[in-house]
Structure formats: C-alpha cells, structure tokens
Amino acid sequence: MDLNWLFLFPMNGAAILFTAVAIMGGLVAYLYGPHWKVRKVPGPPTRPLIGHLHLMAKYGPDLFTLLAKKYGPIYRYHMGRQPLIIIADAELCREVGTRKAKEIPHRSIPSPITAAPIHQKGIFFSRDEQWSTMRSTVTSFFHTSSLSTMIPTMQSFIESATQIFDSHAQTQQDMDFSKFSIKLATDVVGQASFGVDFGLSKPHSTINTTKDGCDEATQFINQHIFNTTNLKMDLSGSLSIIIGLVLPILQEPCRQILKRIPGTMDWKLERGYRDLGGRLDRIVEKRMEEEKGRTSKDYLSVLLSGRERKQNYLTQEYISALAYEQLLTGSATVAFSMSSIIYLVAAHPHVEKKLLEEIDGFGPKDKTPTLEDLKDKFPYLEQVIHESMRYIPSSPLIARETATDVEIGGYLLPKGAWVWLCIGALLMDPKNFPEPEKFKPERFDPNCEEMKQRHPSAFLPFGIGSRTCTGKQFAQQEIKLTMIHLYRRYVFRHSSNMEYPLEFTYGLIRSFKNGVKVRVIKRNID
Known about the structure:
By secondary structure, this protein is α+β, with helices and mostly antiparallel strands. It is built from 22 helices and 11 strands.
C-alpha cells in the first residue's frame, strides 16, 4: 500500500513555515537594517514603522533642538524606516560640509522628493558628473557682472508691485504681506531668469482669464504654492509620501496608482506638476526656437548655451527641471525671508528706527542703489536680513548622504547614511548666539565681539561647502532692493488679526500657515 501521501501535508507545512519565516526575516531586515547600521549613535526610543514621526507631530521642527539638548551634538532621528544622523554642532557641520565633503558629497532624497520626479532632475538632488555639469553651467548666471545688470529689472517690478500699498494705507485694510511677496518674487525671477513676465503684479484687467473666471497668473501661483507646501516630511503629506516614509519600496507603485484617482493628494500634486511643468516646457521650447537671434543672457539662455556643449547632461527635461528649481528657490525662499523681515521689524520699534535712518540717509527716494551701494551703503539692513534669517529660518536642516564609510563625531557611519545638519539648533544655541530668543540685528555687526567669537559655521542660511546655494547673491540683492524701496515710503504694524505666536507649515520650504497680516502706514517724507 502506497503511504507517500501521508508525507505531503507535513512537507507542505514545513515549506510554508520556511517561506513565512524567510519573508518575515526579510521584512525585519528591510525595516530595521538601516537602524542596525547606526545603532551606536544615541537617540530616543523608536516606534515600529513610524520611528520618531510621532514626536515630530507633537513638537514640530523644534524637536531637533530639544533632542540636541538631551542627546548631544550628534544623534539619531528616525523618519519612519530611515534613520537620520542629526548634526547639531558648528564644528561638526564644518567637518561634514567642507573637510569631508568628498566622503559626504550628495544630498539625500527623502520620500517627498521621490514623489516629485521633477525635483530629482534639478541641481539640488543631482549627483556626480550630472551635478558638476549643472553647477558649472548655472554659476556664470550669478556672476557679479550679471547681477548688476538685473538691478533695473528687479527695481521696475518692485516699483510696479508696490503701487497697491497706497490704497492699503488709505483704507487701513489688512494686507497679507506673504501673498504679496510670493507674487513679487515670482515675477522678478520669471523676468530675470526666463525673460517671461508672469503678470502677477499687473492689474487683473490685463491678464487672460480662464473659463472659471480665475486669471491664469493666479492659477499658476496658487498651484506653485500648493505643490511647494504639500511635499511634507511627516504624516500630514500625501498617502504615497507617508507610505514612502514607512516602506520606501512601495512608494512609487502606490503613487502610480493614487495619482490616477481623482481627489487624492497624489492626484492633485501630479496634476499640479503636469501643469507647472507644461508651462515651463512651453517657455523652454519657445526660447529654443528664438535663441539663435537673442542677445540677452538670462538664466534660461545660459542653460540653452550649455546644452550645446553638454547635450547628454542638459536635455530638455533637465533644463525644465532646472527652470522650475530656479523658480522655486528664487520665489518661495525669498518671499519667506521678506515676510519675516517685515514681521520682525514691525515688532521692534528700535530696529525700525535705526533701519529707517540708514535708508533715508542714502539719498532721494527715486535714487536706485547700484550693486556696490547694496554691498557697502546698507550694513544695518544686511544685519537685519541676517538676524531675520536666524530668528525665523526658512529651513532648519541641510540634507547630506555619505558616498563611503566615514567617521563623524567618533561614530563610523556606513555608505548611504543620511547625515543632516541641524542649522535650526545652531541658530538657537546660546553658545553661538547669546540670548537667542531676542531679535538683535547688531549681533551680525562684523565689529562686535559676539560676531568675532562666533564659529563660522554657526550661521548657514545658504548651505555649506560645494553645495552652497548658487543664487545667494541674487536673493540678497532682491531682498535689499525691496526693503529699501518699501521703507523709504512705508512702515508696517501687526494687524489685530495676526496670530501670536506665528504658525507655520513645513514642506520643502517653511511657510506661514496663516500669512503675515499687517497694516500699511505711509510715511510723510518728501
């Protein structure tokens, strides 16, 4: 009698058990493998799957400063499955950003960026030769000689945009300065970088309207803001981003499904990037046709010129990505900084008084500063700008990723480790900035003792090392011109509808949750 059938079930059961154990073992290794590699670095206890995201939900970005006080200058923070090595010490930041830049050359790519492919093709997240080609190409646009020629363009947009201030001063109606600043900054970067007038500062009657009655410029800026503020690195992002924090391997398949379901956040983001990308693609295509007879050299011209020499690295999709990146960094970050300045100066009368004295002392209201004037004639304005960037930073972190095993702060970090510089903690550390809770522009006076004693890497608003922001001077020039023009004519006071303390939303770039509501007061100066 054949009894072999009796062994079928035990054997199948063993196979099933073995498979289940293998799957579970693989899952555990996938989920906790990154943790195991950096387990010697101190940090708070983690929760399964979400890591420390629950702490971020409770404390916001202030969490990094709180953890630095408890665990020291280098510690672990788990963004879901992915551990981050947080650096909260100026000397260690310099080590990561400059001395060991060859071992830590890349920006890590968090799940929000994975959810937005256009960002991965820009200079921020490109790597190796692709990155070096892009950077060497765009750097020439930000040369001093180029910046000087942009001043008349910037000034004309600033003068046009600020015409609305007189009506606000007369009616004493609240003004949301953050909305004004993003429109102005987008117009400036559009004209200076692409030779395109987005028309955000023009009267509505001169702008094409769509079927729903909303002008194209407003649609464009609203979509731009929506996409910028909804790439979040916490549990309030789109479903695919949340999945990417926990199980990165499933993020892209889920995004491909969700972006096809109307009403989901992924669908809205995908549609937004398609619309924004489409508009930028049309700008690029049109300029490619016109470029042969064009003499001006704006940002897009520089890219198209570089394309002729580096066709493999500057294809049209990469040029469009660089164009969008320039739009993003040249508008959102600049607008945030300008709004912060207006908010903080309005709350500190002694700062306002000193700032007005410097600006009034420059000359008549219609005198436009030159590039040399901006560098030499407004030292206190520069101190106000820097202190505003310290007090309300647009981004509290700088992301890096190791390309090889490297030792930092006594810990051996493996290849592929995410190392993030916590500049927000540095900015509120009394060792770097005594009385950090106070708004004191004078702390950035080159002649004061505090400035002389401060570590050079304690203040990094534009990054550090070879990946320092290429548009630093462009941004500062626009901010200075705007502040000079405004404070020659107006001062600002907080609206009674302005909340305190300020509330923020945290995406790729920090933004004001409820805007910056102010009252405009016209100055009586000839």
